[in-house]
Amino acid sequence: MFKFLKGVVGGSGTGPKDLPYNIGEPYPAAWGSWTHHRGTSKEDGSSVSIFSLSVSSSQDGHLAAGRNGVKRLRTVRHPNILSFLHSTEAEISDGSTMKQTIYIVTEPVMPLSEKIKELNLTGTQRDEYFAWGLHQISKAVSFLNNDCKLVHGNVCLASVVVTPTLDWKLHAFDVLSEFDGNSEASNSAMLQYEWLIGSQYKPMELVKSDWGSIRKSPPWAIDSWGLGCLIYELFSGMKLSKTEELRNTSFIPKSLLPDYQRLLSSTPSRRLNPLKLIDNSEYFHNKLVETIQFMEILNLKDSVEKDSFFRKLPNLAEQLPRQIVLKKLLPLLSSALEFGSAAAPALNALLKMGSWLSTEEFNIKVLPTIVKLFASNDRAIRVALLQHIDQFGESLSSQIVDEQVFPHVANGFADTSAFLRELTLKSMLVLAPKLSQRTISGSLLKYLSKLQVDEEPAIRTNTTILLGNIASYLNDATRKRVLINAFTVRALRDTFSPARAAGIMALSATISYYDMTEISTRILPNIVVLTSDPDGDVRTKAFQAIDQFLFIAKQHHEKLITGDTNETAGAGVPSIAGNASLLGWAMSSLTLKGKASEHGSLASANATTTPDLTISNPSSGSYADTASSAVNISDQPRPSSPTSTDGGWGEADSGLLQEDHDSDKEGWDDIEPLEEQKLPSLASIQAAQQRPVVPQKSQNTSLSQPKTAATRVSKAADEDDLWGPVAVPAPRTVPHTVNVQPAAPKEADGLWGSIAVAPPKTTSRPLKTKASAALDDSDPWAAIAAPPPTTKARPLSLGRGRGTKPASARLGAQRIDRNSSGS
After folding, report:
1. Strand order across the 110-111 sheet
2. 25 sits in which H/E element
3. Which PROSITE patterns does this one have (predicted)?
4. 376-430 pLDDT, tens per residue?
5. How far is it, in rounded angstroms, from Cα 407 to Cα 59?
6. pTM of the predicted protein model
7. Helix locations, 93-217, DSSP H
C-alpha cells in the first residue's frame, strides 16, 4: 500500500537526476517546512518554481502531510490556485544520513511577501492592488469552501504566491481536507495535521480542538478567519505573531473594516462567507478591479460595451499602477486582440501601454501580437494598424516586414476604400526601407504604378511624394527605369495641380540620381512647360526647379570646358568661344560615327531644338526619310534609353516622348547612354538654316539658298562650310561600320541627294522574266515600261514601283491580246 501511494505521489522520476528541471536559488520565505526554489525546464529553459520538503525519517508527519498536499494540488484546479506541473519523491544523501525529499514543480511564482517589497506600492495604488489580490484569494477560498466542500485550514500571507502577471494564487494544501458536518469520522487531514497550523492563525474553536463546534459551523468558518489574518498581515506589513494583534484595526482601510470584523467574528456561524465578501464589499469596487474583471469576461460583453470600454482604456491606464498595467492588463489586452475578442480601439490602448516598455520588452510582449493582427480580415483593425504604424514600424525587423507584414498590407493597395488605399500608401514610408529589392521591384512598384493613375487625386499626389522619399532605397537600375517616367510622364501632366507640384518637388529631391543627358533632354523640357501653368504654386516650384537643374548643368559645363580644351587643341580643331559654351557638353558626351562636318551639324541641331522633346513635332513623319541620308547611321538600331521602363511606367510614355524613347528594346543594354544620339528631323535642319548667319567669305555662294538642305549635309562641303568651325572633330579610332550595301553615288550638287532615301538592304525576289525583258540603263522609262507582247499573254513581270507586288494576271486582258494578235 505504501509503495502504491509513493508511486502515485512520486510521479515518473526516481531522483533529482531524473527531474526534468534545474533547481535554482531558494527564496528567503516559504510556507511551513517547505523550501521554495527558482527553477528552469531542461527542455526549453522556461521558468518554473520548485518546492521541496525533506525529512530524515519516513515516519515523519511532515512527509505524510506533504504527500497530502501534492495529491490535493494535483487534483484541484482553479485560476486562483497554484498550477501543478510535476512532482517526484527521492532519497537524498545529506552527509551520513539519507533524507526523504518531495519535489513539486509548479508555474513560476514568487512569495507574496517578496513581491510586495519589490513593487513598493503606496497610497491608492497599493490599496487597489491589494484589493485585486484579496479578490482573487477570496474567489479561491470560496471555490474550496462552497463548491468543493473543502477546508484549506491555513490561509495566511505565507500561503499566497504571485505569478509574473501579478496574479495571486493560493497554495500550501498540506492540511486541506473534506468537510462533512454530518460525519464524526476522525481520519480527516484537518484532524491529523492541524498541528502544522501556527497557533496565531487558528480560530478559537480550533485552538480548543472543539471538533463538535467545528462540524456544526459552516464550511467557510475556519478559512474566513484565515482571510482576516491575511488582511491584517497585508496592511500592517508585519507577520502575525499572536492572535491578539488582530484587534488592532488602525491599518485596515475604512471601506474594508466592517467586512474585516465580520471575518474575525468570535462566533463561527456568523463569520462572513467569502462569496459575499466578493459580491458585497465596497472595498473591491475600484478602477483596477473593475477593469481587470471586464477584461476577463470580455467574450460575454456586446460590441457597444467593448467599444466604450476600449475608448476609455488609454486614459484609464494612466491612473492605474504602472507595473500592474504592464504585467497584467497588457497580456490580457494582447490575448484579446490576438483571438479577436477585442475591438479595433483596443489597439490604441495596446500601443500606449507598449510605449511604457523598454525596446526589448516591447519586441517580446507587443510586437508578436501586432504582426499577427496584420493578417486580420477586420478592416477596422487594419485601419488602426496603418494609422499607428509610425509607433511600432521601427521595431519591425526587415525579415518580418518582407515575409509577414507586407504581403498582408499590400492588399490595401487594391481595396475599394480610398481611405484604406491612402493609408496603405503612407505606410510604405515606414515599411519600404525594410523591404528587399526583389519585393520593391516585383511588387511595390507595380502597386505604385497603378496608384499614380488612381481616381483619387490625393492618392496620385501622395504616390509621387512617396516615390521621391523612397528613391534612395531603390537600386540604380530601378531608379533609371522608374523615376523620370513616374515624375515627368505622369506627375507633371496630372490634371490635379498639387500632383504636378509634387512631381516638381520629387524631381528636385532626387536630382542626384540623374545624369546630364537626362536632365537636359527629359527633365528640363518637361519642367519648362510648367512655367506657364495656371496654378501659381506650380509655376513657382517650376522656376525653382529650373534654377536647380540649370545650376547643375552650368557646373557640368564648366567641368567639361577644361577637359575639352585640351582635347580639341590636341586634335587641331579650331575652337570658337561663342560656340564652345553652347556645345561643350554635347561634344564630350555624344559620339557619332561619320564625318566631322556631320557631327557639327547634328550637334548644332540638337542644341537649338531641345524643347522639341516636350511638344508634338508636326514633321515627325519625315524623321525616317531624313535619317536615312546619313552615312553608316541610317541602318543602325538606336541604343535603348537609360530610363526605359518595363515595370509599370513603360506604358505611360505618351506620344510626346515617342520620338526619343520608342526604341527601348532588350538586347541594347550594352550600349553606353553617352553614345545615344538621334538624327535630327528635316524640320530641325531647316529651322537651323533659317537662323541669320553672317558669311565669313564672300566666295561662299552656297549660302544664297538658306532653306536648301543640301548646303548643310552635302559630302562635298569644303572649309567654307557654315558649320565647319564648330564641327565635332573626327573620332580618333575608326568605328566599325555597319555591314550595309553602299548607296549609289550621288552628284555633289544634287538638290535632294543629301536627304534621299537610302537603297534597301535587301530587294524582293525578281519575277520570272525572260532575257529579252532586261532593262536598258540608258532608257529612263525602262523601269516602268511594259514588256513587249508575245504569242502567249503573260502577267506583267515588273510593277510600277520599287518594292511593290506584281499585278496579278487578269482573264480579260488575255482575251484582248488574243484578238489584237488575230487582227
Report:
1. 110-111, 160-162, 168-170
2. strand 21-26
3. HEAT_REPEAT, PROTEIN_KINASE_DOM
4. 988 999 999 999 999 999 999 999 999 999 999 999 999 999 999 999 999 999 9
5. 66
6. 0.62
7. 112-119, 123-142, 189-193, 204-207, 211-216
State how far the Cα of 415 lies from the Cα of 303, in Å rounded to an integer. 25
* DSSP result, 673-715: GGG---PPPHHHHHHHHTS----S-TT-GGGG-TT-THHHH-T
Contacts 24+ apart (CB under 8 A), 764-772: 764/803, 767/797, 767/798, 767/806, 768/797, 769/797, 769/798
Query: In this structure, which long-range contacts are made by residues 296-301, counting pairs with CB atoms below 8 Å and at least 24 apart in sequence?
Result: 296/332, 298/336, 298/341, 298/342, 299/341
Question: Which of 675, 667, 679, 660 has its CA nearest to residue 735?
Answer: 675
Position 617 scores a pLDDT of 32
β strands within 466-597, DSSP E? none
Residues 444, 32: Cα–Cα separation, whole Å: 65
SS3 state at 47: strand
Please name which of 519, 526, 487 lies closest in space to residue 506, comparing C-alpha atoms: 487
Q: Are 341 and 372 in contact (CB under 8 A)?
A: no
Give CA–CA dist 211/9, Å, rounded: 29
- For residue 413, the SS3 value is helix
> Cell 509548479 appears where?
106
The model's pLDDT over 43-92, given as tens digits with 9 standing for 90+, comes to 999 999 999 999 988 888 899 999 999 999 999 999 999 999 999 998 88
Confidence band of 577 (pLDDT split at 50, 70, 90): very low
Enter the C-alpha cell of residue 491: 506627375
The 10 Å CB-count burial string (b at 16+, else e) for 49-70 is: bbbbbbbeeeebebbbbbbbbb
- The pLDDT, as a whole number, for residue 564 is 52
Q: In this structure, what C-alpha cell is assigned to residue 599?
A: 557631327
- Find where cell 537626362 sits: 518
Backbone angles phi, psi at 21, to 5 degrees: -140, 150
Stated as kind and residue range, the H or E segment containing 725 is: none
Is the distance from CB of 85 to CB of 106 less than 8 angstroms? yes
- CB atoms under 10 Å from CB of 476, counted, come to 9
Banded model confidence at residue 209, pLDDT cuts 50, 70, 90: confident
- Kindly tell me the burial class for residue 136, based on how many C-beta atoms sit within 10 Å of its own C-beta (0-12, 13-18, 19 or more): buried
CB-CB contact of 506 with 466 (8 Å): no
Query: How buried is residue 579: exposed, middle or buried, by Cβ count under 10 Å (0-12/13-18/19+)?
Result: middle
Distance CA 734, CA 724 (A): 21
Grid coordinates belonging to 122? 503606496
CA-nearest of 362, 440, 433, 449 to 398 is 433
How far lies 426's CA from each of 421, 433, 484, in Å? Answer: 9, 13, 21
For the record, the C-alpha cell of 162 comes out as 504571485
| Per-residue pLDDT band at 750 (split at 50, 70, 90) | very low
Residue 90 contacts residue 101 (beta carbons within 8 Å): yes
Task: Name, in order, each residue with C-beta under 8 angstroms of 529's C-beta and a sequence gap of 6 or more.
Answer: 492, 614
At 661, give phi and psi (nearest 5°): -135, 15
Beta carbons within 8 Å of 669's beta carbon, 6+ residues apart: 640
Torsion of CA 133, 135, 137, 142, to 10 degrees: 180
DSSP codes, 745-786: P--TT-SSTTTSPPPPSS-PPPP---GGGPPPTT-TTTTTPP
- Report how far apart, in Å, the C-alpha atoms of 629 and of each of 42, 310, 560, 633, 758 are: 86, 78, 31, 8, 6
Spatial distance between the Cα atoms of 11 and 190, rounded to a whole number of angstroms: 25
